């Protein structure tokens, strides 16, 4: 924008240029200020999210450790019960074998007794 009044025009032109530069610098300053605020907000949100994630990770580790301990305790209980049942089965097998042995001995003894009784009967008839 030019003015034809050389004395005033030059001053007005310089004043407009200075005003433009001042407004431009003010706008750029505000823009940088907003950009910095946005950057700070972003950094703050990132830090908050990191803290949330670390807390969630910590909770997951605690839950995992609890589940692991619970699993180990249950596994130990099952192994103890298995051993107890195996011992019971072994004791039962031993008792069964002993009972079968006694039964077979009793049968043999009974068979011998029956044979003796028959021999006595036969001897008394003769």
TrEMBL record:
Q: Its domain of life?
A: Eukaryota
Annotated region (Disordered), positions in chain = 96-126
Q: Output compositional bias ranges, type Basic and acidic residues.
A: 114-126
Q: Where is the composition biased (Low complexity)?
A: 98-113
Q: What is this protein called?
A: Septin-type G domain-containing protein
- Which species expresses this protein natively? Marmota monax (Woodchuck)
Upper classification of the source organism reads:
Eukaryota, Metazoa, Chordata, Craniata, Vertebrata
């Amino acid at each position: 924008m030019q003015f034809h009044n050389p004395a005033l025009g030059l001053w007005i032109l310089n004043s407009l240029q200075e005003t433009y530069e001042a407004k431009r610098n003010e706008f750029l300053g505000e823009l940088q200020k907003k950009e910095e605020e946005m950057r700070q907000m972003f950094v703050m949100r990132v830090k908050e999210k990191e803290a949330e994630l670390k807390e969630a990770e910590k909770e997951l580790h605690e839950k995992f450790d609890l589940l692991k301990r619970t699993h180990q305790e249950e596994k130990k209980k099952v192994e103890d019960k298995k051993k107890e049942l195996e011992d019971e089965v072994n004791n039962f097998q031993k008792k069964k074998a002993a009972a079968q042995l006694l039964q077979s001995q009793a049968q043999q003894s009974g068979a011998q007794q029956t044979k003796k009784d028959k021999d006595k009967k036969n001897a008394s008839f003769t």
